[in-house]
Specification:
The complex is a heterodimer of chains A (297) and B (276). Chain A has 297 residues and is an all-alpha fold. Chain A has helices spanning 2-7, 11-42, 60-67, 69-101, 107-115, 122-144, 160-172, 174-184, 189-197, 202-230, 234-239, 251-261, 265-296. Chain A is 75% helix and 0% strand. In chain A, helix 12 (251-261) runs antiparallel to helix 13. In chain B, 79% of the residues lie in helices and 0% in strands. The chains are: A mainly alpha (297), B mainly alpha (276).
């Protein structure tokens, strides 16, 4: 059938297919691909974002960036933050996924409820918690006489990032939990049953059956969480706006400030491109590792 | 058996405790929205003493509130309409021909490549471009949304179509149907489940997005609800019950949506987790 068709060009099909693809091709090229090259171009200039005149400065934006103490601080903040977030998120998602996979009463209710935070916006979420950290927790600390709760942790330079981390986890764990839950369904029930009959303990089943089956899911969650926390913006904007004293300014936040409010457009774009290279490298490494594993299996 | 029951009781207790952490922010948002300023400070966690609707009245009386509410509805619906028409249209020929045609195979990888480039990098120059094109408004916003939704949408729909056999299409071609008829009458209905996944994911993005509207929509009459909510917080920084009422009002549509479509939303978010 397909071979017969191939001989004569089916113009109705060719034309319809081409017309179908065109609108999205144009939109995507114009608003998603072309801008990358525009950005690359500006990253080699000294354009402030407003003036008509600018000139080429070669790699100056890139070189200066690494000597800029504000950029270094943002990178340090981001690096520690990403590390804490990714580790805690994976642990929390696996634990919650396992719990929600047990045959407990009201299981479908629990599953729905635990997923609920995912539907509200990140900004709203941050704004709600800003009030809780500002009024709710100090009130609890006051009533119960707990000293470390009495002050707003978001204005404490040492503790502010943990506040952001908590809010981010509160909402960010929803989707990974469901992914773990989906991963758990791929484990054949017989496997668990026969292991139990053979007298395997819960821990052994977890180590030798559950974890191997969950590995692909975990690696996906890891990469998603890495990207997400490298790009963190909305939560910080709503919770601390980078404060106190720039202690929670993330790379993304710095990029946005450079590009749109501090008249350093070309610097901002160059920083964004460096961030992109980091994220692309992580994605490529993940794909490489996943494919290699498949080959050996 | 006894051990298993103990484990289940333990799980139930842990999950119930966790639920408190999930629920407290929502509880506080709802109760605080009905409180007075004094009440909020003195009794943050308590239920409101009486059902005080003043906060909502203040919000609804703001002329920009209804405008921004309808702007959000308009942008979300138009964006979803665009997605529902354009994405399956582009994905269908790619899915069916990427194995035999070099052009369509190129298009597949071309449209997929965007997943790896963070949205931020694509977006910052776009804002400048749109400013130059005099498109820094709702139209420009919709164009970026549609361009930005391409990677994920095409990826998900082509993935789905790879599992759908071509028998039905072949039979329809033999009966003399045109390509367009085959698409609208046979294939579009077949793609509905995955299209709804794509739409749910994008619905949450369009409705909750802050970054793009904040950079593109400068005129007050163009602003969306998220922007209204953020500016409102700036204007009434010390009137927290008012801010909570505003948050509640802007979250409510998605909360209702979730209540009725839980299964589809959870499924949709799972399938949509590939986004970069």
């Amino acid at each position: 059938m397909a071979a017969k068709r191939k001989k004569r060009v089916d113009w109705d099909r060719e034309l319809t297919h081409a017309l179908f693809v065109t609108p999205n091709f144009i939109l995507y090229t114009l608003f998603s691909v072309f801008p990358i090259f525009v950005g690359l171009y500006y990253s080699f200039t000294n354009w402030d974002g407003i003036k008509r005149k600018y000139k080429f400065v070669g790699f100056r934006n890139y070189v200066r960036m690494f000597g800029d103490s504000r950029f270094q601080r943002a990178v340090t903040f981001n690096a520690t933050y990403v590390l804490m977030y990714v580790v805690l998120l994976v642990l929390l998602a696996v634990v919650l996924g396992l719990l929600l996979n047990q045959k407990v009463r009201a299981r479908s209710f629990f599953r729905s409820a635990y997923f609920f935070p995912a539907v509200i916006g990140m900004l709203s979420c941050g704004m709600i918690f800003r009030q809780i950290f500002g009024h709710g927790l100090p009130a609890v600390g006051e009533t119960l006489g707990i000293e470390w709760l009495k002050t707003n942790i978001l204005i404490d330079p040492a503790k502010a990032k943990f506040g952001i981390l908590f809010v981010n986890l509160w909402q960010g764990v929803c989707i990974p939990t469901v992914l773990v839950l989906a991963g758990l369904q791929t484990i054949p029930a017989e496997l668990n049953e026969s292991a139990q009959l053979d007298g395997a303990t819960g821990w052994n089943i977890f180590k030798h059956i559950t974890i191997p089956f969950l590995l692909p899911t975990i690696s996906m969650i890891l990469v998603l969480a890495l990207k997400e926390s490298l790009m963190i913006y909305d939560y910080i904007l709503a919770l601390t706006d980078g404060g106190p004293a720039g202690r929670t300014e993330s790379v993304t936040m710095l990029i946005m400030k450079h590009a749109f409010t501090e008249l350093k457009f070309s610097t901002g774009v160059a920083e964004a491109i460096v961030l992109a290279v980091v994220i692309i490298t992580i994605s490529v490494v993940q794909i490489y590792l996943t494919n290699r594993k498949k080959v050996y299996e | 058996m006894k051990k298993q029951r103990q484990l289940q009781t333990f799980t139930f207790i842990v999950l119930s405790l966790g639920l408190v952490i999930v629920a407290i922010p929502f509880y506080l948002t709802i109760v605080s929205a009905f409180k007075t300023d004094m009440e909020l400070y003195s009794r943050f966690f308590a239920l409101p003493q009486k059902l005080n609707l003043e906060n909502f009245k203040t919000i609804f009386e703001k002329p920009t509130f209804l405008i921004s509410f309808f702007n959000s509805v308009k942008i979300t619906l138009l964006g979803l309409l665009g997605c529902a028409i354009l994405l399956p249209m582009a994905a269908y020929p790619i899915a069916r021909r990427m194995r035999t045609s070099k052009i369509y195979s190129f298009l597949y990888y071309y449209m997929l490549a965007g997943i790896f480039v963070p949205f931020l990098v694509r977006m910052i120059p776009v804002i400048k471009l749109l400013n130059n094109m005099n498109l820094a408004d709702q139209n420009g916003l919709l164009l970026i949304y549609l361009g930005g939704a391409t990677c994920e949408g095409v990826f998900l729909i082509t993935g789905y179509l790879a599992t759908v056999p071509t028998d039905m299409e072949e039979a329809a071609y033999i009966d003399g149907a045109s390509t367009f008829q085959v698409y609208t009458q046979i294939m579009y209905p077949v793609m509905k489940p995955i299209i709804s996944t794509v739409l749910i994911k994008n619905c949450l993005w369009f409705w909750n997005d802050y970054l793009l509207p904040s950079l593109l929509l400068k005129l007050p009459e163009e602003r969306t609800l998220v922007l209204f909510q953020y500016n409102f917080k700036g204007e009434h920084a010390t009137q927290y019950p008012l801010v909570f009422a505003c948050l509640l009002v802007s979250m409510l549509p998605m909360m209702i949506f979730y209540f009725f479509m839980q299964k589809q939303i959870i499924g949709g978010m799972m399938a949509g987790a590939v986004k970069g």
